[in-house]
Specification:
alpha+beta; five-stranded mixed sheet; single chain; 7 helices; four-stranded antiparallel sheet; 2 domains
Length: about 400
């Protein structure tokens, strides 16, 4: 009875939006018991891993940080310009719903277990979890846009109970939005809209959190298949998930997709910890500021600014394209309405409404452009600053080597 009352209370809190993202120095996430979180009661029936495996596997790709109240969290490095979780990969339809196929070498674990949070100093961090899911994200969509955002720490999923009816207060900039026709693209990062567009797009889209438990599996239903077919004009291949025993990138073979999804033991080993980790203050000192551009390969310093500028040019083009389309859609909608009305007074009223709506949207569009220009300018200056520091460090090492040779 107590367990039932606790679950009922939890559902009310979630429905009220009490679980929310909070970025900034004080994270403000819902507290837990510390350490890796359990987000369900069942996982993929393969293997029997402990948390030391997670700690060791991810160590070469980033930094482990001890961060209360979560215990050990992990933040990736070398993620490129303005990286966000679930931004570099693509979606496929499987028996478990929409499944995220990551491009990152380490993506087999952090995008299918646990939760993602954000710290204003060192950026995105991953809180380990024990249950495999096709993708732990919320969804938004309309006839023009599709978007998703990572579920935050503290957003628990209970088998047989779920959390499909609640909404998170996700910061606007955490959403990843695409024009709906691009949803099935394999290179999603090339058509991701700049987050300055998100406030407008959120007003055009509706929120969906339809993760549930079906046939002993966690399913992320997401956007409907029929809608995807209609919006993209493409067929939607459907795959059956097959387990593999090594954490490699997912591989398609015929109608199957081979994915790594081991079972992690629920009983937490309190002695388990990463071999090397930082505390919160060390991470905020040594990893700050949040990386604007951190090349995945050893990109020459001179080429880094060019890479950022190229990405910014893509953002600007996407912003202008979608803004123009929104204005044309309003004009077309009002033209259809006016064509059906003969009363002059009613026509005048509709025309005035259109004018007001257009003026309001144009003002919002102008604000988005100014915000994008401001961010891009700041980002370029920071990239230049980092490049100068790198050159200074390189020169310093060369001077030290020359000094040693002379001695």
């Amino acid at each position: 009875m107590k367990k039932y009352l606790w679950n009922f209370t939890l559902s009310i809190l979630l429905a009220m939006g009490c679980v929310r993202y909070t970025s900034g120095q004080e994270l403000g996430y819902p507290p837990n018991t510390g350490g890796p979180q359990e987000y369900g009661q069942y996982g993929a029936n393969m293997g029997d891993m402990d948390f030391n495996y997670m700690y060791n596997y991810l160590a070469p790709y980033g930094n482990w940080i001890h961060l209360e109240p979560y215990g050990y969290v992990w933040t990736p490095r070398n993620m490129g310009y303005r990286w966000r979780p679930y931004s570099d990969g693509h979606w496929v339809s499987t028996d478990d719903g929409w499944t995220w196929i990551a491009q990152e070498e380490w993506g087999a674990i952090p995008f299918h277990y646990g939760r993602w949070g954000y710290d204003n100093y060192f950026g995105w961090f991953w809180v380990p979890g024990t249950d495999w899911g096709p993708a732990w994200v919320s969804w938004r969509w309309s006839s023009r846009y599709v978007g998703w955002a990572p579920l935050p720490p503290g957003a628990e999923f209970r088998a047989g109970f779920g959390f499909s009816s609640f909404s998170f207060k996700t910061p606007n900039r955490f959403w990843i939005f695409l024009q709906a026709p691009h949803f099935l693209d394999r290179n999603i990062h090339r058509c991701t809209l700049p987050h300055e567009r998100n406030v407008t797009i959120i007003n055009y889209t509706s929120l969906h959190n339809n993760i549930y438990f079906r046939n002993n599996r966690i399913v992320n239903e997401g956007i409907g298949i029929d809608r995807v077919r209609r919006d993209t004009g493409r067929k939607v291949p459907h795959y059956t998930i097959r387990d593999v025993r090594e954490p490699k990138q997912a591989r398609v073979a015929g109608n199957d997709i081979h994915i790594y999804r081991p079972t992690f033991r629920k009983d937490k080993d309190v002695a388990a910890k990463p071999k090397a980790f930082m505390n919160k203050n060390e991470a905020r000192r040594d990893l700050a500021p949040v990386k604007i551009f951190e090349p995945r390969l050893q990109t020459p310093v001179k080429a880094q600014e060019a890479a950022v500028r190229k990405h910014q040019a893509q953002e600007k083009a996407l912003l202008e394209k979608t803004q123009s389309q929104e204005l044309k859609n309003i004009q077309a909608k009002r033209a259809r309405e006016l064509a059906q009305i003969r009363d002059r007074a009613e026509k005048a009223k509709i025309a005035q409404d259109q004018q007001n709506q257009m003026a309001k949207l144009q003002k919002q569009h102008q604000a988005e452009k100014q915000q994008l220009i401001k961010r891009n300018t700041q980002d370029i200056e920071r990239v230049k600053q980092v490049a100068r520091q790198a050159m200074q460090e390189k020169q310093k090492k060369q001077d030290q080597q020359q000094f040693k040779k002379k001695k």
